[in-house]
Specification:
Strand order of the largest sheet: 3-2-1-5-8
Strand content: 15-25%
Number of helices: 6
Number of strands: 12
Helix content: 25-40%
Bound molecules: heme C, copper (II) ion
Number of domains: 2
Structural class: alpha+beta
CATH superfamily of the largest domain: Cupredoxins -  blue copper proteins
CATH class of the largest domain: Mainly Beta
Largest sheet: 5 strands, mixed
Distance between the termini: 58 Å
């Protein structure tokens, strides 16, 4: 229905109809009360105007029923907006487990995107229709914001930390995306296009990639070049823990807590190794802040992700639930 309205963005994801429904409800409530107040103002203006020069208005001491009505009614209307919004928000903040993960890096003033197989794009994002897609977002400089109006999703892109968001495209086509956080001179041109393809077309497109290296191989090379291999030996006998089975597991920390080894944890371990110390290890890892780019972190993460063949004793394998026992 909304797609017929000029200037209204197309509706092309699982979130768009939910967001539109809520939006419509809020607009309808505002219009209804706005109109009611306008009509009342005009009506009272004539109805209660002073008819004779010496007329004095009747004294009013309030009306409890009226006051209760105008407190309780708006309360329920606002709680409905809040509750409805919260339901959508919670869904939006919790990506389902079966997502296709695409890395997105914002930098003044372009977007670099990387598909799960390493295929890279600039200001273009290809995704299959009816698949859950998760974007893992990082910035190389200032705060940006990745926004796809047709999907009704947006998320800030922060330097120094991963944000993520997910959506399921429901309609093939090409949709504009924008940077929607003012980020400098050329902010206005910092955008691009999402292409939603049929699943088999997408698979063919992904396979036909020519311009990109395999991120795991790239990560393996960095692992040697940056001398991660001097401490992180595959058998776990080095100064640092083995990567085997780390990704997706619950890592026990020196302070007794546990943390899920996801992209954000791996990234933090590389940039701020002392933020979370793995139980049983010394805080000897140097920080690689400023020495690795966001692309290189993604490659290293892909390499670490791939090391899951020989689970290390004492650590649950990737994918298995951590038991928390020794
Ligand atoms: C001087 C030795 C050393 C070097 C070099 C080193 N690390 Fe580490 N690393 C450690 C130690 C020790 C720990 C465990 C203590 C901690 O959490 O800081 C660790 C922890 C980690 C963790 C968390 C692993 C887990 O099991 O939870 C990751 C990921 C990691 N390092 C990645 C890297 C990468 C990538 C490089 C190369 C760019 C690297 N490290 C270089 C010593 C090192
Ligand atoms: Cu920007």
């Amino acid at each position: 229905m909304q797609s017929q309205l000029p200037l209204y963005p197309e509706s092309a994801s699982n979130f768009s109809s939910q967001v539109d429904g809520l939006m419509l409800f809020m607009v309808a409530v505002c219009l209804f009360f706005g109109a009611l107040i306008c009509v009342a103002v005009v009506y009272f203006f004539f109805r209660y105007r002073r008819k004779t020069a010496d007329e004095i208005g009747a004294p009013i001491h309030g009306d409890l029923r009226l006051e209760i009505t105008w407190i309780v009614l708006p309360f329920f209307l606002l709680m409905a907006m809040f509750g409805w919004g919260a339901v959508i928000y919670v869904d939006y903040r919790h990506a389902p487990p079966d997502t296709l993960d695409v890395y997105v890096i914002g930098k003044q003033w372009m977007w670099k995107l990387q598909q799960p197989n390493g295929r890279r794009e600039i200001n273009e994002l290809h995704v299959p229709v009816d698949r859950n897609v998760r974007l893992i977002l990082a910035s190389e400089d200032v705060i940006h914001d990745f926004s796809v109006p047709a999907f009704r999703v947006k998320m800030d892109v922060m330097p120094g930390h991963y944000n993520s968001m997910w959506f399921k495209p429901t309609k093939t086509g090409r949709y504009h995306f924008f940077c929607s956080q003012y980020c400098g001179t050329s902010h206005a041109i910092m955008g691009g296009w999402v292409t939603v393809m049929e699943q088999d077309e997408y698979a063919a497109w992904l396979a036909g990639s020519t311009n990109s290296g395999d991120p795991v191989a790239e990560g393996a090379k960095l692992y040697n070049d940056l001398a991660c291999n001097t401490c992180h030996l595959p058998d776990g006998k080095g100064r640092g823990p083995s990567y085997n089975g780390v990704y997706g597991s619950k890592v026990k920390l020196a302070d007794g807590s546990a943390v899920l080894a996801d992209d954000a944890y791996i990234r933090e371990s590389i940039l701020q190794p002392n933020a979370k110390i793995v139980a049983g290890f010394q805080p000897v890892m140097p920080s690689f802040q400023g020495l690795v780019t966001e692309d290189q972190i993604i490659a290293l993460t892909a390499y670490i992700k791939a090391q899951k063949d020989q689970p290390v004793p004492g650590k649950p394998a990737a994918g298995e639930p951590a038991t928390g026992k020794k």
